[in-house]
Amino acid sequence: MAAVLERMRNWEKIFRLRSDQPLFVFVPSRMHNPADSGYPSKLFPNVLELQSLKVARCLLILWGATVQALDLIMCQYHANEEFSRACECHRRIWNFFGCGGTKDQTALQLMVMESNRCAWLICRCVEYLYGNEMGLVGHQSMIYAKWVITKHYHQLGMSRELAWCHNISRMSGPGATGRIQVMEFQY
Questions:
Q1: Which uninterrupted H or E stretch holds 25?
Q2: Rounded CA gap, 88 and 72, in Å?
Q3: What sign results for the dihedral spanned by CA atoms 147, 149, 151, 157?
Q4: Could you state, in order of their start, the residue ranges of all structural domains in the chain?
Q5: Of residues 7 and 103, more confidently modeled
Q6: Looking at residue 109, what is its pLDDT?
Q7: What is the pLDDT of residues 89-145, one digit of tens each?
Q8: Max intra-chain CA distance, the chain
Q9: CA-wise closest residue to 61 among 130, 136, 122
């Protein structure tokens, strides 16, 4: 699994290098998610403006697969004491995260950090894909990614993020498509 994660990370680097402009930029959020109502600030005050729908789809698959793979490893880590002690796994995972984290952080902490980073990036794509310009195609592009992040936040017990995911289809604001209903995966 660590080898797959390394390949995905390398693919992302190559994808970025081949583009003559940034794949995305951060912009202020304009939509409202009902899950943010009880809080002093938005969970995601800045969102991604992506280069194109093609780029968005590629990144969603990449980030979604990364979150899903790391969540699977974390489940094994918790369920199998022998697995959690396996030096090879820790060494490969440590190599995968390379520059991120400190020597004091465990492989599990690094996995949580990386899976959250990818999940947060997916969440920040929602506004771009749920905008009027994308219509039904934007909503359809989010099906897999939304399932992955919902499952991820549930697994980690992150209640605010989970509520945010459950309210994605109820988002409103400038440029928001109406309440388009599309098939969703259950977790």
A1: strand 24-28
A2: 17
A3: negative
A4: 2-15+51-170
A5: 7
A6: 81
A7: 565 666 666 545 555 567 778 888 899 999 999 999 999 998 878 777 877 888 899
A8: 52
A9: 122
Model-level pTM? 0.86
Residues 56-85 pLDDT 10s: 999 999 999 999 999 988 888 777 766 666
Check: CB of residue 166 under 8 Å from CB of residue 150. Answer: yes
Tell which residue, 92, 91, 156, 169, has the closest CA to residue 119: 156
* Residue for token pair 């998610």: 33
Neighbours of 109 (CB within 10 A): 13
Coil, strand or helix: which one is 127?
helix
Determine whether 178 is exposed, middle or buried from the number of CB atoms within 10 Å of its CB (0-12, 13-18, 19+). Answer: exposed
Helix H or strand E encompassing 140: helix 135-141
- What single string gives the DSSP state of each residue in 55-119? HHHHHHHHHHHHHHHHHHHHHHHHH-HHHHH-HHHHHHHHHHHTTSS-TTS-HHHHHHHHHHHHH
CA atoms of 150 and 74, how far apart (whole Å)? 16
Beta bridge partners of 131: 176
